[in-house]
Specification:
It is a single chain. By secondary structure, this protein is of the alpha/beta class. The chain folds into two domains: 143 residues, HAD superfamily/HAD-like (Rossmann fold), CATH 3.40.50; 50 residues, no CATH class. The protein is built from eight helices and six strands. A six-stranded parallel beta sheet has the order 3-2-1-4-5-6, with helices on both faces. Helix 7 links the parallel strand 4 and strand 5. Helix 4 packs parallel to helix 8. The radius of gyration is 16 Å and the shape is globular. The two termini are 33 Å apart.
Length: 201
């Protein structure tokens, strides 16, 4: 893919970056009788957070990701303001790479959710992979473009950096102590905006 793409395309994970998946999923789990263990916020793994098997955790995530709730996730932190600003005022477009589900209804709900919150044109491309799938293959299309790649899962950020992308890691409890000189940690979309545009507000 043309390296000039980096001038206008920003690659983004969705859950934990653009949308707040965690809070609605927590509500769903509580409604179904599951409780988080103490210190849960420092675990990325849902099985560890709820002290259940990986198999059961994956099954519950898939059910949630294919439910109607997935069409109504709220924006994460200040994402709505800055995604719109980057798109409308600076001409950037977003390519989403999300390990949500390949279920057609789930895909439609994700597209609907993103367009409702961020406008109809900000997300030029939305790639939905299987629930929990690795993203290295989807990212390889953008190899050595230098595009910004925004993630919250350490492995996916590392895969992007290895492919010559400019990886930014959205800070959460589970990645707080992570350090990698090739990956920049960010707390919110204001920081992302400042890094990408080289502007401060």
């Amino acid at each position: 893919m043309d390296s000039s793409m980096k001038n206008k395309v920003i690659l983004v994970d969705i859950d934990g970056v653009a949308l707040d998946w965690e809070y609605p999923f927590s509500v769903y789990m509580e409604e179904h009788g599951f409780s988080k263990i103490p210190g849960h916020e420092f675990n990325y793994d849902i099985g560890e957070r709820y002290d259940i098997s990986k198999k059961q955790a994956n099954k519950l995530i898939k059910i949630f990701n294919e439910s109607a709730a997935i069409g109504f996730l709220p924006p994460l932190r200040d994402s709505m303001h800055y995604v719109k600003k980057l798109h409308q005022e600076y001409g950037y477009v977003f390519h989403a790479i999300t390990s949500l589900s390949t279920n057609p209804n789930a895909v439609k709900l994700r597209e609907m959710n993103l367009r409702k919150l961020f406008g109809k044109t900000a997300f030029e491309k939305i790639t939905c992979l299987e629930t929990g799938a690795d993203k290295d293959q989807a990212l390889s299309v953008y190899k050595n473009t230098g595009c910004y790649w925004i993630e919250d899962k350490i492995k996916n950020a590392e895969d992007g950096a290895a492919l010559g992308l400019n990886a930014l890691l959205m800070e959460h409890g589970h990645n707080l102590n992570y350090y990698n000189e090739k990956i920049t940690m960010v707390k919110n979309w204001k920081e992302i905006f400042q890094i990408i545009t080289k502007q401060s507000e």
